[in-house]
Inverse folding.
């Protein structure tokens, strides 16, 4: 990647900024046991929006959808939000090289307000924060990342997407952006075909490596 072309880094949230995927796995395992009993559902739904999950698995169960939504809102208010190892140091390195940053997440503002309450410095890490309310189409559609680039006034070929889920990685690819995959939710082998670069965390990753 040409050094002069790297001006924007766009991050998903869960599994990319925060190590929250294990918590969501437990939540959906409990919901699955309560209402569906589908083997491995908690793994199948990773990277999908709530609307996508409902449409695929709970389409004719409006009462159950309401119960899950209420349970999820309560769950997210009490979650722990621990940064992926090395993330804060990586953001500092990007800042030193004048790289713009954006959060591009399928999470809604209810979830983000819980984050803001727990992490007082969170907003300062990003030049823009985009949530599900900002998008017309969900991942794997590129809409969210195209809007992220637009918000940063960045050209497509000057953006790098950081993602962990299959739908997210496909979204970055569909936006014709460089994609760095985090093997936090899925294995390195399972996501490498969708990435330009795969990392487990940010501890040994910096601006210079992002340029490759």
């Amino acid at each position: 990647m040409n050094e002069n072309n790297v001006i924007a880094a766009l991050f998903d949230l869960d599994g990319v900024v925060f190590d929250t995927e294990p918590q969501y796995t437990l939540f959906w395992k409990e919901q699955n046991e309560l209402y569906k009993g589908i083997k491995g559902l908690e793994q199948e739904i990773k990277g999908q929006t709530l609307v996508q999950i409902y449409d695929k698995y709970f389409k004719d169960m409006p009462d159950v959808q309401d119960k899950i939504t209420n349970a999820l809102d309560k769950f997210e208010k009490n979650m722990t939000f621990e940064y992926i190892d090395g993330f804060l140091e990586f953001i500092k390195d990007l800042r030193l090289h004048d790289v713009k940053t954006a959060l591009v997440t399928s999470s809604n503002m209810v979830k983000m307000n819980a984050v803001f309450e727990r992490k007082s410095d969170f907003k300062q890490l990003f030049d823009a924060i985009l949530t599900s309310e900002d998008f017309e189409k969900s991942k794997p559609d590129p809409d969210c990342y195209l809007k992220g680039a637009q918000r940063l006034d960045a050209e497509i070929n000057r953006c790098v997407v950081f993602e962990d889920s299959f739908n997210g990685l496909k979204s970055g690819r569909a936006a014709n952006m460089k994609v760095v995959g985090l093997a936090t939710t899925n294995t390195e082998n399972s996501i490498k075909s969708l990435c330009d670069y795969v990392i487990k965390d940010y501890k040994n990753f910096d601006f210079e490596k992002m340029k490759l």
Notes: The chain has two domains: 3-20+81-210, 21-77. The chain has a mean pLDDT of 93. The CA atoms of residues 161 and 179 lie 5 Å apart.
